[in-house]
Amino acid sequence: MLLNNTEFLANVPIFSDLDDETLQKIAKSGVLQTYKKNGVILSEEDTGSALFVIAEGKVKISRSSSDDKEVILAILNESDFFGEMSLLDGMARSATVTAVEDSKLFIIQRAEFLDLIAKFPDVSVALLTELTKRLRSATMKIKALSLKDAEGKVATVLLQLADDVGKIRQGVVEIDHLPFQQELANMAGTSRETISRTLHSFAKKGLVELDGSKLRIIDYEKFKEMYN
Question: Which of 24, 31, 96, 115 is the most buried (most CB within 10 A)?
């Protein structure tokens, strides 16, 4: 199925500076594929060399720890992309990618993408910029999770989610669809019970509000200052 609508491609960081005619060419160079909720898109150690862009939905990036526990590295949303590492170096996939909800992904193969960056150098610069941001974020997260106590680890994950998917208004950040507590535990490297206890502790202190699957950080800057 060819992708005709280029609107979402214009919102993808590595394509955002391209004109509509170029976006149309990109749209015709890939395919749109649907994945059901909980469907595995990529598996760790698989071979492959395609770039995936999220047109609709949400996915999680995870790896298995030495004791076979799932460690969630990131939650990606519409306009995010993944698969760039194997795309560039041709090596096996470094993580597993699973659809958190029904999702549509735009897939472009390595040959087409390399041709694209040869024709449009700005795409490679934008890709390098995005990869640098991800590396910096990952480095900060590793440092935070290795040094902080349980409360600090949970706060680090909430701050990451706030940056990735949060909506800010008058200093309040709202996360519409908070991951399940077990998923939060896998992201923070702690237990589900610790997540539950810490979230309720934050709420009791007036730092957050819990409303079903929503979480609000009442004073984002203060929370960031306390735990960043």
Answer: 96
Query: What confidence category does residue 2 fall into, taking pLDDT thresholds of 50, 70 and 90?
Result: very low
Q: Does the structure show a pLDDT above 70 at 147?
A: no
* Nearest C-alpha neighbor of 181 from the set 210, 218, 147: 210
**Mean pLDDT calculated for residue range 141-162:** 83
- Give residue 41's pLDDT: 96
User: What does the block give as tokens for 180?
Assistant: 């399940």
Kindly give, in sequence order, each residue whose CB lies less than 8 Å from that of residue 217, ignoring residues fewer than 6 positions away: 158, 162, 166, 172, 173, 174, 175, 207, 208, 223
User: Which residues pair with residue 64 across a beta bridge?
Assistant: 70
Contacts from 121-125 at CB under 8 Å and sequence distance 24+? Answer: 122/17, 122/18, 123/14, 123/15, 123/18
Residue 108 and residue 51 in contact, taking contact as beta carbons nearer than 8 Å: yes
CATH number for the domain formed by residue range(s) 148-227: 1.10.10.10
Rounded alpha-carbon distances, angstroms, from residue 48 to 122, 123, 146: 25, 21, 32
For the chain, the domains span 9-142, 148-227
